[in-house]
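Protein in question filed below.

…
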Amino acid sequence: MNTSLRRHLITSVIGLATAALSPVLLAQTVAPIKAVASFSILGDLVRQVGGDRVAVDVLVGPGSDAHVFQPTPSQARLVGQAQIVFSNGLGFEGWMSRLLGTAGYKGRHVVASRGIQAIHTEEAGETPHAGHQHEETDPHAWQSVPNAMVYVGNIVKGLCEADATGCDSYRRNAVAYNAQLKALDTDIRATWAVIPATQRKVITSHDAFGYYAHAYGVKFLAPQGVNTDSEASAKGVAQLVRQIRKEQIKALFVESISDPRLIAQIGRETGVKPAGELFSDSLSDAKGPAAGYVAMMRANTTALTQAIQGH
């Protein structure tokens, strides 16, 4: 083979190899989709599905309470620059519609809880003359692992609409993550199975574990309702103290987002020592025991079952 022909063949092979590799290289250099999630737990779910193709900013970070959150101007600008926004829905982010309007946001808004069967609770009327009860929607749907899988499905759909070329990647990530969630759900059920149903009673700061209760057969009681913005009434606290004494409830927890003083007061009045901290509406920081959704659910389940068993 002469030198000229050899050079031609080498050039052709290099050209073909470059052409074959260019889509891969292009995919690696595409800027990630800009996403905003309303709070840390949802942000983790979006990251699990989005992978490297999605850059997620969270409005209400670890240790903060979305019920009482007040968006800042810089966060409004962040939303205005986003390509897709994820919220929980079910009334959890009462500030979201106002924020989207302030930001002038016209892009995709994914409500992650869409399709979930909501729980409705009876709350005492807050006005002085109101002796009646009124119904409130419990927004904490992520506290059931099967519900978290519904969130994942809604996240996949939203990301595929925002980034069609990445859809296969999002679906693969979702399949892998759902496998983790199925294993998590199985483990939680097995952990509770060894504890008699009559002993599965827990006191928490606010009524954030209704979906966990329904999924795993646990009874939760709380001085505050589903919204931490409401005040616990003296009458309600007194009734709770009597119930703790009567039923000999031993599992008393403060939540990571809540003021611990009320739970400490209940502990003093009942003689039940608070067993530790639960993560209801927020993840822990990166070094904590609940840095992601799966870790949070495992940490909560371990804390709850150990407290009930007296460990």
About this structure: The longest strand covers residues 33-39. The chain has ten helices and ten strands. The longest helix spans residues 3-29. The chain has two domains: 30-180, 191-308.
